Amino acid sequence: MSDIPPTVYRPRDLNLFVTSRFIATVAIQVQSVAIGWQIYDMERTPLALGLVGLCQFLPMFLLTLPAGDITDRFNQRRVYALAAGLQAGCSALFLMLSLLSPHTAWPFYLVLVLFGAARGFAGPSGSSLLPFLVEPQKLTRSMAFSSSVFTTAVISGPALGGFLYALGPVAVYSICILGFIGAALIVSQLGGRRYVPQQSLMSRYERVAEGVRYVRSRPVVLGAISLDLFAVLLGGATALLPVYARDILHVGPVGLGFLRSAPAAGAFAMAFYLTHRPIHRRVGARMFATVAVFGIATIVFGLSVWFPLSLAALFVLGASDMVSVNIRGSLVQLSTPDAMRGRVSAVSMLFIGASNELGEFESGTTAALFGTVPAVVLGGLGTLAIVAVWMKLFPPLRRVNSFSDVAVPH
Prior knowledge:
This protein is mainly α. The chain has helices at residues 11-43, 46-73, 76-100, 106-127, 139-165, 169-187, 204-216, 219-235, 241-248, 252-276, 283-303, 307-334, 341-370, 372-393, 395-399. Helix 11 (283-303) runs antiparallel to helix 12 and helix 11 packs antiparallel against helix 14 (372-393). The radius of gyration is 20 Å and the shape is globular.
């Protein structure tokens, strides 16, 4: 595919892609605030919030790898558009439940399972698209630009969700329906370079296994995505923010929106910086350092009972996480040939989904067992331990100096 003329790359395709991602991410974040507040208001236990993550993780775990194979064999744009349409359907079901059964949690959990399935397809198809829309030499900078737009959505989404929830869940889910439909329509207009898969006699299982083997054979890629998995799995405190907003900091749903936005604000500031000052040297060492900062910020947030300090800790947490995300994303994309993009992206998204959604379940469970504050602090300490262990287990990742060291031809 390296013979494709550069005229297939259109600046508008990058803009369309990030616009679609922005709209869909805002919808996800707005909906997340509403679901978290509704379910905690019904059940009043951290375990109920943990189940929100578990319900989304299980279908993502089962479907993400097959979705990666489907992405490699079909048009990623159509797969992503269909997944966004299914997410819109889930928002419509949440709206209906809010009207018909606003005090019963289990129907919401069932819809979350369906929403997790939609995300299982949206993840690999969406994350594998960018290398087909921009020239290889512009990929790292384009990823930083895409990340800055993404984190803008993550900033504005929770705050918007907190304010909209004051109008009731119907307003929240109505916005989400429009957002997901808009994202589907925009991504269907993307052009860019197309990868035409070669005919293969391998079964679907063999193709999926080939993607897993590819990741396992690259210590830099495996180390980067597994570091993110275990660090965020242990250190993620996002699932417990409704508990902090209601019972520890006493700031209500609007305060919850600001708490949810604070990590994204830090991530946006860092993404803006990385867009203008990309990382060129000591890539691996910087990734480990920023994950350690993530763990320290988690501990500070867990111990804080002062709202401004909590916001500051979450801001630093988000900024450090953005450096790690930028490095991991660049390492994975630059290390992957076109024929493997969907499947490798699926493995990466499976790790990310596990760290986020399964991390929510872990946080909710440990908080129910040990208390909210001890659960968050122990998670931060666990992140620091993971950094130390991974530096020993993956020395090739620690020694990566520049992205060119791992780049493969496209």
